[in-house]
Fold this protein.
Amino acid sequence: MRRKTSPNPNRQTHQEPPALVAADERVETVTRPTRKTHQEPPVEIKAEPSPAPAPPKPSPPEPAPAPAAAVETAPFRPVRRPPMAVLQIFDDGRKSAELVRLRQAKFVIGRTDGDLVLGNDPLLSGRHAELERVCRAGCYSWVLRDLNSRNGTFVRVKGMALKEETEILISRNRFRFAAAGPSQEEIDAEESSANVRQTINWRPPSVLLAANRPLLVELLHSGEGRKFSLRDDCQFIGRDPRQCRIALPEDETLDLRHAKAVCDAQGRWQLEDCDSVNGVWLRVREIALAAQSSFLLGEQVFALAIP
């Protein structure tokens, strides 16, 4: 006889797992009929008319031709009388000057006599120099003339030819150019002609070394001073011994390199100013002055402005 068993509520029953649908199997879906919706008719959009293109800008008018350049009015100048020059008498160590207008044809400068008397300068002669207006071919010019003064008339120059007996001022140092000293042949001939009982003339070593070379002879109030040989064809004169063959370090009015002496291929010597402050000056007897010329009488510096 079978025994009846009561169901155990805690006992789990075996359930089959849900069947898996194969990936390649089609899944049928039920489609519902689509419901027609009411659609408004499309609204026709009218394109706005494009703006009319802007009218082209008128081209600027062509500039009027420039008027012809006005001719500058010429300043009044006399035509029946000579032009008037102006003499400038410079203040000591300055660029300011006293102005004297030259209305007469001749103008004399001196220490005791003349149209301009400078009695405080002892280096001036009584009648030292004169300025004269001359007319050549209808053109006027001025001539500076020395009146046999003791200390001479000097004109400032940028360069000059050095010839025998030319006198120059380099700032306030005065020199005379000697074209050549005794040649070596002359020295040898004098020594060979002398016998043992005859004394030959003494010459310093500088003269022996500078045989047949030109010299710059220093001129002092007491006579001749030092003699500087121009041994090189180009050498400087100034205050700095490191830059100049002829150095005068004691003179503060000299530039470091004040002037340059140069000999060309033909053996002609020139002295050139190296844009110095106090200049290079040439002694003259008579010279025609340029439009703005500086000259020195005694210790007074002048300039002549010629219109």
